[in-house]
Design goal:
By secondary structure, this protein is of the alpha/beta class. It has helices at residues 3-13, 23-34, 55-58, 126-129, 140-151, 164-175, 191-194, 196-208, 314-328, 399-407; strands at residues 15-19, 40-45, 82-85, 89-93, 98-101, 106-108, 111-114, 118-120, 134-135, 157-160, 180-184, 212-215, 219-224, 230-235, 240-242, 245-248, 252-254, 266-267, 270-272, 278-280, 286-292, 297-301, 307-311, 343-348, 351-357, 364-371, 376-383, 386-393, 429-430, 445-447. Its cofactor is FAD.
């Protein structure tokens, strides 16, 4: 569909299919309608619900302050779509422009947007994961089930993994007055996302709030009672923890397996796309009728050396969806790149944590405002002599300033005398990220190489 006439025909009478009834899927659909798309729109989702908001699930819902069924995303406008909910996509025929569904149906498209997101990484032992009282937290049903379990006043909750979600769950448990143990294979909570310097502050927050924090350990097995309820977990250091609720918070898996064998550049790291959100095929050739947005996308970012980034961020999903929708309905001269600066927030143990940029790229960190001891500070990450990211604890007014520093490639160490002239000597120190080849729980940004057909990424058939 090149040239103005065919684009006008697409806008007037074409069929756009969105796979993923998600935040990204919904915002993209709204943007298409805003831009004058008058054709048919089909929304395909594997859950039975229309798009809802996920952040409240680990925050307000677990505290009993909101219910999971009240998390529907507000609509910016009516999208006049045909909804196919509770029916996962199972395959893609690129040549015939068809999406195959689990119920055997096939849906034809003129343009396709893939916004299938990620799912919670399950407990590796399926039988143990199926024990009553073992949870993951990703979906609305997960949130409702876990909240019911916490409301039943369990004797102890075990959270496996101290990334952002695991830490928020532990915080909610303590706010509810529940005994909670956190087991993390890394040296500290949040270490994969923010590095060891900040991880140490996070560890103190856990301990000060009476979390039983165990670091440098792995859970080797879960044990059930004769009735099939979880009752204990065994750790790699030989200890056993009795718990009647276990939350597995081991990060996310990208929902791309359904594309195995399709010829699209999809694998465990997500679906590769160009800066304009157009998907690559497995030969590294860009498609013009398939677009990608949200957590499942890996796209190159100009500010970060054109590395492919996979971002599990709310704001990125919205911005990328809007860019993809714009480009799907535009001639090539009018298309625009997706250049959103990653931004993330978390609330735990009464502290508001926010970051901009890509902290895991940083090799050094410099505390530029406040102090680690007071847990009210701004930290700036440096990489190859420039500012690459910043993080704040209860100090977010500085973030727009540091975002501008990132966008303009400002030098690192930060040269200006800061407003906060404390005598601690604001010197850079190693950011202390774990070896990226060793899995830790929960960097929300994955750096995944330079090429869409990166040969370290194998395209394998889905596991049967």
């Amino acid at each position: 569909m090149s040239g103005d006439g065919s684009l006008e025909h697409l806008k007037r009478e074409g069929h756009i299919v969105v796979v993923g009834a998600s935040l990204a899927g919904l915002r993209a659909a709204e943007t298409m309608r805003e831009k004058g798309f008058a054709g048919a729109l089909t929304m395909i989702g594997d859950e039975p619900y229309e798009p809802y908001d996920r952040p409240p699930l680990s925050k307000q819902v677990l505290l009993g302050k909101a219910t999971a069924d009240r998390t529907a995303l507000p609509r910016r406008r009516d999208i006049d779509a045909k909804w196919r909910l509770g029916v996962p996509a199972t395959g893609l025929d690129m040549a015939a422009r068809r999406v195959r569904l689990a119920d055997g149906d096939e849906v034809e498209y003129d343009r396709l947007l893939i916004a299938t997101g990620v799912r919670a990484r399950p407990w590796p032992n399926e039988d143990e994961g199926a024990l009553d009282g073992v949870f993951v937290l990703r979906t609305r049903d997960d949130g409702a089930g876990l909240e019911r379990a916490l409301a039943a006043d369990p004797r102890r909750v075990l959270v496996i993994g101290a990334g952002f979600t695991g830490s928020e769950i532990a915080s909610a448990c303590r706010e509810r007055g529940l005994a909670v143990t956190v087991a993390e294979r890394g040296a500290a909570p949040l270490v994969g996302a923010l590095g060891g310097v900040i991880g140490e502050v996070a560890a103190e927050m856990h301990r000060d709030n009476e979390v039983d924090l165990r670091t440098g350990v792995m859970v080797t097995g879960l044990e059930g009672d004769p009735a099939g309820r979880v009752r204990a977990a065994h750790l790699s250091d030989g200890t056993t923890i009795e718990a009647d609720v276990v939350v597995v918070s081991l990060g996310a898996q990208r929902n791309a397996e359904w594309l195995a064998g399709s010829g699209l550049g999809a694998g465990p790291r997500g679906i590769a796309c160009d800066a304009g959100c157009r998907a690559f095929d497995i030969r590294g050739i860009v498609t013009d009728d398939i677009y990608v947005a949200g957590d499942v996308a890996r796209s190159p970012h100009a500010l970060f050396g054109y590395q492919f980034l996979s971002l599990e961020h709310w704001g990125n999903a919205v911005a990328q969806a809007e860019t993809a929708a714009h480009n799907m309905l535009s001639d090539s001269a009018d298309r625009r790149p997706h250049l959103w600066v990653p931004a993330f927030w978390s609330s735990q143990f009464g502290v508001n944590i926010k970051s901009v940029g890509v902290p895991p790229m940083g090799t050094e960190i410099m505390i530029t405002q406040g102090s680690l001891a007071e847990r009210r500070f701004a930290g700036v990450y440096g990489y190859q002599g420039r500012v690459i990211a910043a993080v704040t604890f209860d100090n977010c007014r500085w973030l727009p300033f540091y975002q501008h520093q990132i966008e303009t490639g400002a030098p690192f160490p930060v040269p200006f005398a800061t407003v906060d002239r404390r005598p601690v000597g604001h010197k850079p120190m190693p950011a202390d990220f774990p070896d990226p080849s060793v899995p830790t729980h929960g960097p929300t940004i994955t750096l995944s190489g330079y090429s869409p057909a990166d040969r370290k990424m194998t395209f394998i058939p889905a596991h049967h």
